[in-house]
Specification:
The chain has 467 residues and is mostly beta strands. The protein is built from two helices and 31 strands. The strands form seven sheets. Strands 19-20-21-22-27-26 form a six-stranded mixed sheet, with no helix packed on it. The longest helix has 8 residues, at 54-61. It starts with 26 loop residues before the first strand and ends with a strand.
Length: 467
């Protein structure tokens, strides 16, 4: 039997079997700062559907199994399962494609169009009229933040919850703060911090089946907490997270947290110019980016999961995201003005891709490695030539080490590129920067664009065929 990833009309609704009893109120209680509690986060059940959220529940369950016991295969060249897989773009060796149809006609809202140059489909999914806002807040959050839930039935754009098939608005307001991340395992869970008045120190998850927030831990010592300064992610097994917390705008404390056991693994006062922090996808490392804005000490520092044993991986890092290479190793993939590269976290082995003869193939941009079910790839949006592409994370074993554009030792990567499209955005301000973000299966991307300055910033989705 063949199953398409979004066969919503032909697949019977399959309810998640989740242990424990459903909480009675709108919020389940957790624990206060410093008090351990054995509270596994996969125990918020669906014993009875809330009539107000049945639409969301049905959407989540009307595709392939939500427990992800059989997630989509990571690559359409490497699966023996009888599943109709996405047809990923034809692979090339150069990041040198340009827009063959540079028209300025803005696509109509919610109308899917063929994207013949790249063999996929593009849909404009937001507008000020649809979202009833006029401040350019109707785009996705960020390249390092997952827009889709784990089975790609829901996505967050701005502060609204949309269905991922027809892009209908299901919730006008996400019930927790922007310090949030989708679960990598449970399609109905959104982890994050919830405001209590003006205080943001309660970590838990919102369950879109029951429309309830379950508190896992309250950090009483602080009045403001985020997931890695808004750029951190939860490990792929939903086990570990790195929080950054402060009190009265004072120094930031990094807190390594075990979600499963609701336990603090370690704490460390951050450097004054700490820009972001987060766990690697495997949960084996914590990575911290210090910008050097205040101390002139720019570095990319790796820690153990308990925030011990700091080790500097690079002093000249760029914007990037934490991914997995083709060999299963944790890496940090970066995009600079002239090149794309990655650093292996275990030993700071660096790989630079020879993917363009142009001296300036990227002009900076963004990287997203949120394709947790398609390891070995990261996705990029470049400012130069409006490119959207995926790059395979592999290196040439015959390459001789050389000094790269950053003055660091590197080897050549294997040049394998998937052209996904062109974003057509001027990137004249932050909201208009494309900030590409990829879905868990790697078969969809979302980006922001003002479409050659013809409109406000809108969100667009490109989907591979069969998705």
């Amino acid at each position: 039997m063949q199953l398409h990833l979004k066969q919503r009309k032909s697949v019977l609704l399959t309810l998640l079997v989740i242990c424990s009893a459903c909480g009675g109120g709108g919020e389940n209680q957790g624990e206060s700062d410093g008090i351990a509690q054995n509270s596994a986060v996969d125990t918020n059940p669906l014993s009875e559907q809330n009539p107000d959220t049945v639409t969301v529940s049905q959407i989540i369950n009307s595709t392939y199994q939500s427990d992800q016991s059989n997630p989509p295969a990571p690559d359409n060249h490497a699966s023996n399962q009888s599943v109709v897989l996405p047809q990923f773009p034809n692979r090339v060796t150069q990041l040198d494609f340009t827009d063959n149809n540079p028209g300025t006609v803005l696509p109509s809202i919610d109308q899917t169009q063929e994207n013949p140059q790249f063999g996929n489909k593009i849909t404009r999914i937001s507008s000020s009229e649809k979202f009833q806002v006029g401040d350019n807040t109707f785009t996705h959050d960020y390249s390092k933040r997952q827009a889709w839930n784990s089975n790609e039935t829901l996505l967050i754009v701005g502060d609204k919850l949309l269905s991922a098939d027809e892009f209908n608005i299901l919730k006008e307001q996400i019930p927790i703060s922007t310090a949030r991340n989708w679960s990598n395992i449970h399609a109905n869970y959104l982890y994050g911090f919830k405001f209590t008045g003006e205080v943001l120190n309660e970590f838990g998850y919102h369950d879109f089946f029951t429309d309830q927030f379950t508190l896992i831990k309250k950090f009483d010592r602080f009045d403001n907490c985020t997931l890695g300064q808004g750029e951190g992610n939860i490990s792929n097994d939903d086990r570990y997270a790195l929080f950054t917390c402060s009190k009265n705008n004072g120094p930031i404390t990094m807190i390594s947290f075990d979600i499963l056991n609701s336990a603090i693994l370690g704490e460390r006062v951050a450097e004054p110019d700490m820009n972001w922090a987060g766990f690697s996808q495997s949960g084996s490392y914590i990575l911290v980016g210090n910008s050097g804005a205040q101390t002139d000490t720019r570095n990319l520092t790796r820690y153990n999961p308990d925030l011990s044993n700091p080790f500097i991986l690079s002093n000249k890092f760029h914007h990037g995201d934490l991914g997995i290479d083709v060999y299963g190793a944790d890496v940090f993939t970066m995009i600079g003005a002239t090149h794309i590269s990655y650093i292996r976290l275990s030993d700071k082995f660096k790989v630079t891709f020879p993917i363009s003869s142009n001296e300036n193939p990227t002009s900076f941009g963004h990287v997203s490695c949120r394709n947790v079910n398609r390891p070995g790839w990261c996705y990029v949006s470049t400012y130069h030539e409006f490119r959207l592409a995926a790059v395979q994370l592999d290196f040439d074993g015959t390459s001789v080490e050389f000094a790269d554009q950053d003055g660091e030792f590197s080897v050549n990567g294997v040049a394998v590129v998937e052209p996904w499209g062109v974003h057509r955005s001027t990137a004249s301000d932050y909201e208009k920067q494309p900030r590409v973000s990829v879905s868990p299966s790697g078969s969809q991307i979302v980006f922001s664009s003002d479409w050659y300055a013809s409109s406000e910033a809108n969100a667009f989705v490109i989907a591979a065929p069969n998705n």
